[in-house]
Amino acid sequence: MLSRLNVRKKIMLITLLLLIVTVFVAVMGYLYLRKSNQRFSDMYNFNMQCMDFAADLQTQTQVNSTNLYGLILSTSEEEYKATIEDIKSRKLTIDEDMSTLKALLKTDQEVALMTEMEEKIIPWRAVIDKVIELTGAGRMDEANRFYHDNITTLEDYHTAVRNLTVYNREAGAAMEKEGEDEFNSNSRMLVITVAVMLILAFFISKVISDNITKGLLKTVSALDQVAKGDLSVPVDGKLLQRKDEVGMLLRALDSMQNAMNQLVGRVKSEAAELEGIVQRVNDDANILTEEIESVSATTEELAAGMEETAASSEEMAATSQDMERAVHSIAQKSEEGAKKANEITRRAKDTQVRVESAQSNAMKVFEETKGALEKAIENSRVVEQINVLSQAIMQITTQTNLLALNASIEAARAGEAGKGFAVVAEEISKLADASKNTVIEIQGITGKVSEAVYNLSLHSNELLKFMSNDVNQDYQTLIEVAEKYNDDASYVDNMVTDFSATAQELLASISEVITGIDAVAIAAQEGAQGTSDIANRNSSVNMHAAEILSQVVKSKDIAEQLGRAVAIFKTN
Q1: What is the pLDDT of residue 345?
Q2: Phi and psi of 233, rounded to 5°?
Q3: Confidence label for 482 from pLDDT (cuts 50, 70 and 90)
Q4: So what's the architecture of 2-207 in CATH?
Q5: DSSP character for 230?
Q6: At what angle do helices 517-567 and 245-311 cross, to 10 degrees?
Q7: Single pTM value for the model
Q8: What is 322-536's CATH superfamily?
């Protein structure tokens, strides 16, 4: 699955994973805070208000009970009226508190306590009204007795109010305890959830980073092998099936390696064939030298015979038959020399054609390989995109660290309620640091890949330069040698043809010698001139043969240098 994604998508996947973890933590924290806030809000809106109103009701009730005794003990009209006004005011407050409490109460226990209060407030109000009536009539002693006789009624109402207050206080404490337990439970769940998400994110990030780094390490190893000249190790087929930049780089490397294998193989084959051609040319040159030496020896014998003929015409008549046989032998050797010269000419032309064909094939392979190498090197520069993406991840991890720092600050401000977020912020910071280390490792490996690609490009350019300059120049030298060899062979052919014609003329002259001494003398003179010409041409032929041998030796040296140049490459 990961092998089908390019490096950019893998890095975007890691970034998206970090963002998802961050958003998830933020959402979970928000939901838990909202739930806790709702519980505290409910505690305030119901229990705390009920406690406030119940406490106020208890206070108003106790004060009014105390005010009744103050009425009985009042010594002035002003004090009496002020007490009456305070009692009335507090009765209205008590009625409002009772009405508000009745609207706030929800549980059956609270409703039962409220019902008890409503039942107890009726006799309580009756006692208050009766005391006010008696004190208003000036019957203080009777009011005092009535107050003390009905103090139990007043205490019953006080007890009912106190019971509601105590119940609300206990309910508030229970709700606070429940809220604290729920908060602790939510905090534990949040920490566990965040820990699980962080572990999952770390595992996925590690899998993705390992997928990238392992592919890059294998690519570096393959590039090192090629840079050392070892073309025999094939690229792993599984790595070639990857769809990311590593797969693209390895496929380009495989294409380049195959092209270089073909190039080096062809160069070795052409060098071996060239060495064979040189050997054959050397053998032919040796044969030609031997023939020329044979012709030279025959010419010397003919010159000696012509001198004897010139010295004595009588001896010429006696030895004319021997000369005729010698001339026949010269004619036969001339014909054989002509055949050898034709064969040498044909071999020279074949050599020239083969060398030109080898040069054409080598240049074709060179152009194809050059294009493939340039394309492969251009494709390998996709590694530079990894540096750009790595910089983007470094920026994201920096921002993530800042987010974690802000979260830690906010958690510290929240006090106990923010401890869970402090843990989350710390884990996010660790994850960002791990991502930063992974990016640094990727950048280090990418640098090695870039260095290996640079070395490969450098050596490939040197090989291409060698092929373009040295090998092409060597082929051109071989072509020039073949052309000179062809010219020399043509020259030998012409010379042997002339030599054959001269031998025929010599034979005709000998026939005339047989018929007449005068004709023999003339023919001997012509024969002497012809043999001198042949001797001169033999010298020229020897010079050309030596030149051919020199060129052959030079071609052999070039072939050996070419073989040594490609021997550094290990092919399959």
Answers
A1: 74
A2: -90, 115
A3: low
A4: Up-down Bundle (1.20)
A5: B
A6: 160
A7: 0.37
A8: Methyl-accepting chemotaxis protein (1.10.287.950)
